[in-house]
Amino acid sequence: MKLLMVSGDRQSSIGEQGPFFQMQREFSRWFERIDVLCPRPDRPVTTESIHGNVHLHPASGGRAAMVGFIKRRGSELIASERPDLIVSHDYGWFYNGIGSASLSARSGVPYLSEIHHVPGIPVAADKREVFDRFVARRYIAWARSRARAFRVVNSGEMPALLRRWGVPDAQITVLPSLYIDLELFAPPSAPVQIQQDVLFVGRMVNNKGLDRIVDALALLRARGRRVSATLIGRGPLRAATEARVARAGLGDQVRFVDWVATATDLADSYRASRVLVCASTCEGGPRVTVESMACGTPAVSTRVGVMGELLADGAAGRLCGFDTPSLAESIEHLLEDEDRRLAMGAAARSIAERFEYARVLEGYARGLHDLVGLEAVRR
C-alpha cells in the first residue's frame, strides 16, 4: 500500500529528528512508499527522504500558497506513484484538508481527515481560539461529505465533539497518536542528578499556558517554596515568557532551552526532572506527558486529550484546573513528598507501557489499510 500524507511537519526536511521523524521509523515499515507534502520550513531544506521509503516534498511558498501546492504537487505524485489513500493532518485554516479534498475529488483516491485536536476544546485560551473553533466546526461540516473518515487520537474528548457536530459514528476512526519507544523513554538504570524540579516541553504558543506556569512558580516562591524549572521550546511567546519570568523575579530559578537535538537528549531531560508540567487548554495527546511518564517522571496536567483518563485516580500524577492556584497546588503536592513522587513515577511508567511504540503504530497502519480494504503486511 502507498500513502500520500499531507502533514504539518516542518522538522524532518531540515534534518531535525522530531516526533514525525521518530514515528515514521516504524510506521513506514507497513507501507511500500510514503510521500509527504509539508509546509515550507524556516531553514534551508537538507533532507529529501527518511527511512528509505518516506519522501519529503516541502512547499516552496507560504501558507497562502499551500492549497495550490497540494493540488499541483499532489496531482503529480498521484499520477506517478498511484497512492491508495491520502492522509491529511488538518488544523488551523485547514489548507491541508481543502487541498486533499480537491485531490480526492479529482483523482478518486479517498482521503482521511486527521483531527488531532480542536483549538478551544475543552477551553479557549483567547478570542482567537474561539474563532478557530468556529472555523474547525465549519470545516468538519464541509468535509463530512468529502472525507472517507475522520481520524481522532483519543477515545473520549474528540469522538464526543464530532458527534455533537454531526459526524456519524461510522465516519469516526479512533487511532491513537501516542506511540512511545519504551526502550528509549525509560526510567534511569542508575541514580541521576536532578537538574530541575519542573520541566516544560513544547512550542511556546498561547494554548500551552506558559503564563500560568510562570505565575504558579511565582506563587510557590511567595509561599516560601523555591522551585527550579526548565522550559524547552521556541515559538512566538518565547520573548514574552522570558519577560514574565524577569518581572516575577524568577530569573535565578527558570532556564530556557531552545531545542534538544535528539530523542535521547529529551529522555535525559525527563529523567533529570521531578515533574513534567502541561498547562495547556487544548491538546490531542499530549505526547510529552506520556514520554515523561514512561521515564518514571510523573506529570501535572490539565484535563486535555487523554490526560483526564490517565491521571484520573491520582496514582501517576495530578490533574489541575485551568487556573494558577490549582496548578501551583498540584506542583507542590508532587514536590512536597519525595517518596510519594517516586511511587507516582513507578505508576506513571506502568500506565505509559500501554502506548508501546511498535504496537500502537501497527494499529495505526492497520487502521489505514482497513479503510481501503487492503491487507497490512510489515516490510
Name the shape in a single word: globular
Q: Helix content range of the residues, please? A: 25-40%
The CATH topology label of the largest domain is Rossmann fold
Strand order of the largest sheet: 3-4-2-1-5-6-7-8
Mean pLDDT: 95
C-alpha termini separation? 11 Å
SS summary, helix count: 13
The CATH fourth-level homologous superfamily of the largest domain: Glycogen Phosphorylase B
The value of Rg in angstroms is 21 Å
Q: State the CATH architecture of the largest domain.
A: 3-Layer(aba) Sandwich
CATH top level class name of the largest domain? Alpha Beta
Tell me the domain tally: 2
Order of helices and strands: EHEEEHEHEHEHEEHEHEHEHEHEHHH
Decide which structural class fits the backbone.
alpha/beta
Low-confidence stretches: none
Largest sheet: 8 strands, mixed
Question: Strand tally, please?
Answer: 14
Written overview of the protein:
Keywords: Glycosyltransferase, Transferase. GO terms for molecular function: mannosylfructose-phosphate synthase activity. It comes from Engelhardtia mirabilis. Pfam families: Glyco_trans_4_4 (PF13579), Glycos_transf_1 (PF00534). This protein is α/β, with parallel strands linked by helices and 379 residues long. The chain has two domains: 2-179 and 357-372, Glycogen Phosphorylase B (Rossmann fold), CATH 3.40.50.2000; 196-355, 3-Layer(aba) Sandwich (Rossmann fold), CATH 3.40.50. It contains 13 helices and 14 strands. The strands form two sheets. An eight-stranded mixed β-sheet has the order 3-4-2-1-5-6-7-8, sandwiched between helices. The mean pLDDT is 95.
